[in-house]
Specification:
Structural class: alpha+beta
CATH superfamily of the domain at 330-502: Histidine kinase-like ATPase, C-terminal domain
Number of helices: 10
CATH class of the domain at 330-502: Alpha Beta
Strand content: 5-15%
Strand order of the largest sheet: 2-1-5-4-3
Helix content: 40-55%
Number of strands: 12
Radius of gyration: 53 Å
């Protein structure tokens, strides 16, 4: 058994080593085998046809042969057959044999005796030649060419066998066979030499793809696969690879951007939590270090500790809400009256900012359009938080005399009815360089300068003072409801935050959300 396993292992090793490794070698090998096989098969078919045709010619000669006159008379009288004259001369390649009436092979025969004739049995009963059907007979010495023979019955029951040698047929077919083998060898060598170059030339676009892919794997991600002809297989492969590379590059850019945002988010969250935590720690250490502190100072310190703890608690709650909006499935939706929701948000904001002028108007200011009930599917608590954050943001980041207007209505967008709530102000607006980042988490613009326009970003009602999460939470809630929150910024003339939601009749697309 060990020897058998060792032999099998060696055989597998040999087959593995003999197997072509490259695609070029495999294609050349396949082309060589196909071309050589086709040539040899064609030559073999020609060889078979030629041998059959030559054999038919021999059979036709045998079927028309008749022994010279007087041969049967001489055999009947027991005399040796007389030598035929010139007009009756037997062709030199014929051999004629006779079986007597009692079935024995006669020693009398016609034809030259220069070489061995066909191998014939001594009795006619063993002769397998019937009905003048030609058959092949082996040579008498077993080494020469075969013979083609026919048999028929002559006068007085004398059985006659006429034979012709097949040396001409064998010679012609042998020469054709060697010619076929030589031609197959030439074709094989020609296909290997010329086919190798042709295959390498045809695979040159694929080789370029291979080289480009190797450079890409080494870090050159900006490269693209060259596409010479998009109608070929290699061209379509190049297009598919370029599409895959574009998507891969986009994915890598998104991953890098996501990692950058995550690092910035963690740094901002740590920075926001560090300030109140430092204050809590400082006041707590003060109270522990000075137990005899006056009651007024102790009460003040405890109030500051509680305020900073409340700030940290609200900040953690907002971060937890953002995480829930991104990770939890959609909550139960119900029709929400946006007009009533906007009125409640205005009333709540007026309590905190009693000197602010906040108006509620229809979306389209015309006699034909008045305030009406506008319903959208959603979570009323989350949508109220969005409106509260927008109103608080407008009150905090605009001058006290700036007017704030809330507009509620419906309109068509690309043939689809949507509900819209706008929170507009006539303040200084947002600086153009800050506008693209107002919905980012922890983003806070620089404090407004007296001589220039202020910026509006940062916290809303539920985000704590200056945490920079109010608009981020509002945008996340709008997205979770299948809508969007946009900004229409007009530096020096105010800005408009626009909440767009699907109508109650149209189901909101599934998305993340939380209750």
């Amino acid at each position: 058994m060990p020897r058998a396993r060792s032999a099998a292992s060696r055989a597998r090793t040999v087959r593995h080593r003999l197997r072509p490794r490259s695609l070029t070698a495999r294609l050349v090998l396949i082309a060589t085998l196909l071309a050589t096989s086709a040539v040899l098969l064609c030559q073999l078919a020609g060889l078979v046809v030629l041998r059959g045709w030559l054999t038919d010619q021999v059979d036709e000669r045998l079927s028309h042969f008749r022994p010279p006159p007087g041969v049967y008379e001489d055999l009947r009288t027991g005399e040796e057959p007389h030598a035929p004259g010139a007009e009756d001369a037997l062709p030199s390649d014929y051999r004629v044999f006779f079986y007597t009436e009692d079935g024995r092979l006669s020693r009398v025969r016609l034809g030259t005796d220069d070489g061995p004739g066909p191998r014939l049995p001594e009795r006619s009963a063993a002769l397998r030649l019937t009905g003048r059907q030609a058959r092949a007979l082996p040579s008498g010495d077993g080494r020469g060419s075969a013979w083609r023979a026919v048999a028929f019955t002559g006068p007085d029951g004398i059985r006659t066998v006429v034979a012709l040698p097949l040396d001409t047929v064998d010679g012609a077919t042998t020469k054709l066979l060697w010619l076929s083998l030589g031609l197959g060898l030439v074709v094989c060598v020609g296909v290997v030499v010329l086919g190798g170059g042709a295959v390498r030339l045809g695979l040159r676009p694929l080789t370029r793809v291979e080289h480009t892919a190797r450079h890409i794997t080494r870090g050159a991600l900006g490269l693209s696969v060259p596409v010479a002809d998009p109608d070929t297989e290699v061209g379509r492969l190049g297009l598919a690879l370029n599409t895959m590379l574009d998507r891969l590059r986009d994915a890598l850019r998104r991953t890098e951007a996501s990692e950058t945002r995550l690092r910035r988010f963690m740094a901002d969250a740590g920075h926001e939590l560090r300030t109140p935590l430092t204050a809590v720690q400082g006041f707590a250490e003060l109270l522990l270090a000075e137990p005899a502190t006056a009651p007024e100072r102790r009460a003040e310190a405890l109030a500051l500790v509680a305020a900073n703890a409340d700030r940290m608690s609200r900040l953690v709650d907002d971060l937890f809400l953002l995480a829930k909006l991104g990770d939890t499935p959609a909550a139960h939706r119900e029709p929400v009256d946006l007009l009533s929701l906007a009125a409640d948000a205005i009333a709540t904001t007026a309590i905190r900012h009693p000197h602010r002028a906040i108006a509620l108007e229809p979306l389209t200011a015309s006699p034909a359009h008045d305030l009406a009930v506008i319903e959208a599917p959603g979570d009323p608590h989350q949508l109220a938080q969005v409106l509260g954050n927008l109103l608080a943001n407008a009150c905090v980041h605009t001058p006290p005399d700036s007017a704030i207007t809330v507009r509620v209505g419906a309109r068509d967008e690309a043939g689809t009815a949507v509900c819209v709530v706008e929170v507009a102000d006539d303040g200084p607006g947002i600086a153009p360089e800050a506008a693209p980042y107002v919905f980012d988490r922890f983003y806070r613009a620089r404090p407004p300068r007296p001589e220039g326009p202020s910026t509006e970003a940062g916290s809303g009602e539920g985000a704590g003072p200056g945490s920079g999460l109010g608009l981020a939470i509002a945008s996340a809630i709008a997205t979770a409801h299948g809508g969007r929150l946009t900004l229409d910024n007009r530096p020096g003339a105010g800005c408009v935050f626009r909440l767009v939601l699907p109508e109650s009749g149209a189901p909101a697309p599934p998305g993340p959300g939380g209750g």
